[in-house]
Amino acid sequence: MPCSFITFEGLDGSGKTTQMKLLASWLESRGRSVVMTRNPGGTPLGERLRGVLLDSRTEASLGHISPLAELALMFADRAQSIAQIIRPAVAAGQVVLCDRFTDSSEAYQGGGRQLGSSTVLAIHAAVCENLQPDLTLLLLPPLDVSLPRARRRNQRHTERHGEDENRFEREGDAFYSRIHATYLAIAAREPARVALIPDDASIDAIHQKIVSIVAAKLVL
After folding, report:
1. Cα dist. 82→49, 89, 92 in Å?
2. Distance between CA atoms of 171 and 126, rounded to whole angstroms?
3. Would the N or C end of the chain have less CB density within 10 A of its end CB?
4. Residues 171, 174, 100, 201, CA torsion sign
5. pLDDT for 158
6. What pTM was estimated for this model as a whole?
7. Which class for 179: exposed (0-12), middle (13-18), buried (19 or more C-beta within 10 A)?
8. How far is it, in rounded angstroms, from Cα 163 to Cα 52?
9. Domain count along the chain
């Protein structure tokens, strides 16, 4: 089966966005048409929802977002992304690279917020018609490396651009330990789909590992 839908997963600060851009360039250099998107975001509706979900000032203006409401908003974004971007691009023969998908909800809301994997997967089956990536690249360096990096990066982004996406980064270490453990459980449960990359290596070394994984899966 052609590999047309590839997702990038992991904690913030793991290098997902950088590696997705590098993979897009590599695929395009080999004649493939690539569409890049992100969850939350990517569509006009998704970008609105991203602002609500990630801005640390959200709860000061809207009040506390319950874990189930947060999960529902994530899936509203995802359903729109599937309808507006992912399915049309795959149908047109393009390769879709998506920064986060349902594995993120299972890790962050199922694990971090303690809603449980079964709740997340049941909603995924109903709302996303159980659409699964052909390949998931899970970048999961040690937690004590990625989390401080993410917090520093988001603070720099806020200072430079005035956009605050620190809502999740304000959570404590126990929250992120649950996320990390859930990601490992997903990788163990679905080894045929999920390629776990636990290295804290250079950008180029990780890229070369990703290229070798994708080349083995993709019909170029």
Report:
1. 15, 10, 14
2. 29
3. N
4. positive
5. 59
6. 0.92
7. buried
8. 12
9. 1
pLDDT tier at 40 (50, 70, 90 boundaries)?
Answer: very high
Per-residue confidence at 147, pLDDT binned at 50, 70, 90? confident
What are the percentages of helix, strand and coil residues in the chain, rounded to 5?
Answer: 60, 10, 30
Q: What is the CATH number of the domain that holds 163?
A: 3.40.50.300
Kindly report which listed range (3-12, 48-57, 148-157) carries the lowest average pLDDT score: 148-157
**8 Å CB contact between 108 and 150:** no
pLDDT tens digit sequence for 44-68: 999 999 999 998 888 878 889 999 9
Question: Are 102 and 186 spatial neighbours (Cβ–Cβ below 8 Å)?
Answer: no
Longest dimension (CA), the chain: 49
Tell me the sheet residues that pair with 194: 136
* H helices present in 55-168, as ranges: 58-62, 67-81, 87-91, 102-105, 117-127, 143-161
Instruction: Determine the structural domain holding residue 151 and report its residue range.
Output: 5-217
